[in-house]
Design goal:
Elements: H1 14-20, E1 31-32, E2 35-38, E3 50-55, E4 58-64, E5 70-75, E6 80-84, E7 96-101, E8 104-110, E9 116-121, E10 126-130, E11 142-147, E12 150-156, E13 162-167, E14 172-176, E15 190-193, E16 196-202, E17 208-213, E18 218-220, E19 234-239, E20 242-248, E21 254-259, E22 264-268, E23 280-285, E24 288-294, E25 300-305, E26 312-315, E27 330-335, E28 338-343, E29 351-355, E30 360-363, E31 375-379, E32 384-389, E33 395-400, E34 406-408, E35 422-427, E36 431-437, E37 443-449, E38 453-454, E39 457-462, E40 466-467, E41 473-474, E42 478-484, E43 494-502, E44 509-510, E45 515-517, E46 526-527, E47 533-537, E48 542-543, E49 550-551, E50 558-565, E51 573-581, E52 588-589, E53 605-606
Parallel strand pairs: 39-43, 45-51
Antiparallel strand pairs: 1-38, 2-37, 3-4, 4-5, 5-6, 7-8, 8-9, 9-10, 11-12, 12-13, 13-14, 15-16, 16-17, 17-18, 19-20, 20-21, 21-22, 23-24, 24-25, 25-26, 27-28, 28-29, 29-30, 31-32, 32-33, 33-34, 35-36, 36-37, 40-41, 42-43, 44-46, 47-50, 48-49, 50-51, 52-53
Length: 625
């Protein structure tokens, strides 16, 4: 009797399991699914979606549908909708600077009546919360940052010029008139440092210098370049107990400076003398401050500051001498704890680099000195998404694992033109949003749901028939095509190639008979799938567990069940019943070994009766019974 064991070893590869749940993994053949989320301005017109910001689980942005102008839009992961036509009609309210604070979304917009002012979205409706420049004038609020007391920003009330303002949740007010009069201090950037809100400003006397607000007063941190020209300080970064930035003191050029809470000082004159070290692209990553700089010896290369001592040259990527022999690291960005940037090693042009704070890896997308000009770096936790030009299809979107796996998203605008993707935005947990022009729909919003792949190829191993993620059942080894519908992304049904191996191990075995005697010759079974294991129960039968050979002469009579389990990853079993009987004693004896023809017929003395008798050769008459 053939008895199959339960499928306790039934399995598929991890790849099959992941694909079944709509997941992907690098190293497999795959074609990403990228689709147009919505043709907001139908036809070839450009809606130019920008300012992507996540709020309340949805993505908010500005876009132009061709009828309402540039207005306030929302995408919920499926549909895009105009949620507020702040300036009714075809003119634009141009919302921008989206910033979440205290549960609401703040931005600037122009309703056509009050000019460009401060607005708020509470999840239901948009409201102007402050008309800083009363009437039709514009205050142009910008640079929103949270600091004790409310949202701080730059605005122009029409009287004092562009100055520091705060909105406390109920009203907006001027914090400090740094440059008295209508000129304004023209603050360009903010950085929170410890208990101070730091920024650059021009008080009309000292030029643009570093300033701070501590919640009670506004003050100049340091007059780095005395006189009205100012140090043009910028690119503030709060790092390891210091506010680090670039500035020009007028005698050592544009160099790296710092403020420790009491004093402003130069960290290093990277390019000694009046020449500029020109530190640029200051970026915090992995507990370090990275930037590019020109020291007059190695060219424009990658530098690092660890918070102690002086900054130092980290990598001379373009080995050689001074500028213009430089790798020119650009677009330094922290991506999931790695430093990502573009640079040229002198053989290949500007290509993508990833630094893990010990060493770097790179990928040559456009071989040769032209380079691919990678930029717009954004991560999803495991991969880097960015735009690049491979020299053939134009600028398109890519993803890179930081090692050897590079994937082109899609050639959205075929013919070498390139769709020019921009404004890449990670919409957790599954999407990379961006705007691009495919040559048909104009510049619109696109989605790369990176956990969905169209055209994946998977290898599946199964011990018996296998059910694919779409519900198809396959029972034999072969290559199959299967379509997995995507509920979340209707345009991204996954078409997968399944290389299926069904390993059904046949446990069938047989013996010459099922009934044996203890004096029979030992026997071996015939096995369909050799290499497995035999067991016999109950005890009493002597056998080989590997070959199944039965040794009758040293075994005990009885009824036995023999079980055979096949080897390998998909074991199966069969059982067979046999009987072993004790052999009869055939010994017998006559009174003599020699007889005469005249003697009476002898009768044997036999140990067992009921058997049959015969003699050889012929000539002896014998009673066979």
């Amino acid at each position: 009797m053939l008895v199959k064991t339960p499928p306790f070893m039934k399995r598929t590869t991890l790849l099959g399991i992941l694909i079944a749940f709509g997941l992907s993994q690098s190293g497999w053949a795959q074609t990403p699914c990228i689709y147009l989320t919505e043709d907001i301005q139908p036809g070839a017109g450009y809606s130019n979606p920008t300012q992507f910001t996540e709020y309340g689980g949805d993505v908010y942005f500005s876009a132009d549908d061709g009828a309402s102008g540039i207005e306030f839009w929302r995408w919920n992961g499926t549909d895009a909708e105009l949620i507020e036509d702040i300036r009714p009609g075809g003119l634009s309210s141009a919302p921008k600077g989206f910033f979440e604070w205290s549960g609401d979304l703040y931005f600037s917009a122009n309703d056509g009546v009050n000019g460009t002012e401060l607005w708020m979205w509470d999840g239901t409706s948009a409201t102007m919360v402050a008309d800083i420049n009363p009437g039709a004038g514009h205050s142009y609020p910008a640079g929103f940052v949270a600091f004790p007391g409310g949202i701080y920003f730059v605005a122009d009330d029409g009287v004092n010029g562009a100055e520091l303002y705060v909105y406390d949740g109920s009203s907006a007010s001027l914090v400090w008139d740094i440059n008295p009069g209508a000129g304004g201090s023209n603050i360009l950037e903010f950085e929170v440092f410890d208990t101070e809100l730091c920024f650059n400003a021009d008080d009309g006397t000292n030029g643009k210098e570093p300033w701070a607000w501590d919640g009670s007063s506004c003050y100049l941190l340091g007059d780095i370049r005395p006189g009205s020209l100012g140090s043009e300080c910028e690119d503030f970064k709060s790092f390891d107990g210091e506010l680090v930035f670039r500035a020009n003191d007028g005698s050592t050029g544009m160099e790296l400076w710092a403020y420790d809470g009491s004093t402003v000082y130069q960290l290093m004159d990277i390019n000694p003398g009046i020449a500029n070290g020109n530190p640029w692209y200051l970026c915090l990553s992995g507990g370090y401050l990275y930037f590019r700089a020109l020291d007059g010896v190695w060219g424009m290369e990658l530098w690092r500051y660890d918070g102690t001592g002086s900054p130092y040259l980290l990598e001379d990527i373009y080995v050689g001498g001074p500028h213009p022999i430089s790798s020119a690291p650009s677009y330094l960005t922290d991506v999931d704890g790695y430093l990502v940037f573009s640079a040229s090693d002198g053989v290949d042009g500007q290509e993508i680099y990833r630094h893990d704070h010990t060493t770097y890896t790179t990928y040559d997308i456009n071989p040769g000195f032209s380079g691919s000009d990678p930029q717009n770096f954004v991560g999803n936790g495991t991969e880097i998404f960015f735009t690049a030009n491979d020299g053939t299809i134009g600028t398109e979107i890519y993803k890179w694992d930081g090692a050897s796996e590079l994937t082109l998203g899609e050639d959205l605008y075929p013919g070498g033109i390139g769709s020019g993707p921009n404004n890449l935005f990670y919409y957790a947990p599954n999407d990379i949003l961006f705007n691009a022009d495919d040559g048909t729909a104009g510049n619109e919003m696109w989605d790369w749901p990176f956990d969905i792949d169209v055209g994946s190829e998977i290898d599946v191993f199964s011990c018996e028939e296998w059910t694919s993620p779409s519900g198809e059942v396959y029972s034999t080894t072969g290559t199959y095509m299967d379509t997995i519908p995507s509920i979340a992304y209707p345009l991204c049904d996954s078409i997968i190639t399944i290389n299926l191996v069904v390993d059904n191990e046949d446990p069938t075995f047989t013996y010459p008979a099922t009934e044996f005697c203890t004096n029979d010759e030992d026997v071996l079974p015939t096995v369909t799938t050799p290499g497995g294991t035999f067991t016999i129960f109950p005890a009493g039968m002597v056998y080989s567990s590997s070959s199944g050979e039965l040794f009758f002469d040293i075994s005990s009579p009885g009824s036995y069940t023999i079980k055979y389990v096949t080897p390998g990853a998909c074991p199966d079993s069969m059982t067979l019943a046999i009987t072993l009987t004790e052999a009869n004693d055939a010994s017998f004896d006559y009174e003599s070994d020699v007889y005469c023809l005249s003697q009476s017929d002898p009768v044997p003395d036999a140990e067992s009766i009921g058997g049959t008798w015969s003699s050889i050769p012929a000539g002896m008459s014998i009673n066979p019974g």
